[in-house]
Amino acid sequence: MKIAVLTLGCRTNQAESARIEEMLQAVGHQIVSSTGEAEICIINTCSVTAKADYQSRQLISRTLKVNAQVFVTGCYSELNAGIITDKNSTVKVVPNKDKDHIINMIPHATACDILPSVARHRRRPVIKVQDGCNNECSYCIIQKARGKSSSVVPDKVLQEIDKYHALGFEEIVLSGIHLGIYGRDLKNQCTLAKLLEIILKQTSIKRIRLSSIEVNELTPQLLDILSDNRICKHLHLPMQSGDDYILGLMNRSYTSSEYRISIENILKRFNNIGIGTDVIVGFPGERDDNFNKTLHLIDNLRISYLHVFPYSSRPGTPAALMPHHVPESLKKSRAKRLREIGNIKKEAFIRNNIGLEHDIVIETLGDAMAKGTTSNYIRVHVSDNSVLKPGSLVRVRLTGARDGNASGIAL
User: Fold this and answer.
1) Is residue 111 a part of any domain in this protein?
2) Is residue 206 included in any domain, yes or no?
C-alpha cells in the first residue's frame, strides 16, 4: 500500500516516524511524500505549544479531505483523543506507547524487528534512545503525554546505529525527551556518558550528535567524553529564562548564575563549540526587569544560536493558572528583541569560523551547490559539488557568511 507519514514537532517525533516508515517498508509498503497519492496517512502530532496544537488540528483536517485512511498519534492526539474522534469517527487514534504497533493495524502487514532500507534523503538519522520526562516544568504538558522516563537498552541502540552505518550514513543524532537522564530506569543502570562510551567502542560511525540536554545534567563524565573527535562539538542547552524569579515559577532546577557558569566552563574547555539555547518570553509574571535580566544574560553569553518562544498557555499545567499573564503584543516585542540578538550572535559565530577547515555531512545536492552541517552546527553551502555525494563526510574550508549560513569550498 502507499503510505504517507506526516510529522510535526521534535526530533524524537522525527525518529519515531522514521522507525514507522522503516517497519512499513520492511513488509512491502511504499512510503510516499504526497497525501494525494496515499492510501493511508499516518500523522505524528505535537502539543508543545498552542501553535503546535493548531498545526496538528490543521494537518488532521487537511488530511481527512483526501481519499485515505487516517491514523493519528503523537502528543496532541494523546491529550485530545476524544476531541479528534468526536469530530471524525473514521480516524484511528494510536497512543504514544503503541506507535510501533501501527504496522499491526494496517492490512497485510506484520510486526518487524529489523531495520530495513531507509529513505536516502535523511542524511543525519535521528535515533530515539529515551522517551518521557521526569521534570515537572510548570509550563509543559509533555510529561502528561509521554509519561516518565523510559530508556532504550544499549544493545538496541548499537543495532540501529550499525544498520544506519551499513547503509552509508556517517552521522547519527541521539534524541530523547529528557536525554540527560538516559539509563536511570534500566535494570542494568547506565548513563548517557556510558552509552556514548559504548557506542565509541563498539561502532565505527564517524559522527555522533546529541540533541537537547539540560545544562545541569552535563556531568563531568559527559564533558570528558565530548572531547572525543567523533562526538560533535555542539550542545543545545535550554535556558528558558535568565531571571531567577521566573526560573522558580517555571520550576526549573538551576539558577541563572549556575547556567552562566556552566556555559563559561564549557567554552573554556571547547573554545569553538556550538552552543544553542531556548528561551521562553512572556511567562506569567514576567515584568520588564525580569525580561531585561534575560536580555542581559543572553547578550553576555557566547552562544551560537537562539530559539525564542513566546509563552504558550497549556491547559492542565500549573502555569496556565498563574496570575499576571503577559499581553500577546508584549510577548511579540520581547521575542523580536531576543531574536535580533540571536541573529547577531549566530552571524558572529559563523564569521569566527571563516578560514577554518571543517568536516561536513553532505545533506542535499542542488544544481549549483551542496549543503551540509559542521560538527559545531554551522550550515554550509559548498559551491563546487561535482565530486560530492549525499551522505558523505567532506572536508571544507569556510569562506564567508550570509543569512545565517556559511559558504565554503571542498578540499
Assistant:
1) no
2) yes
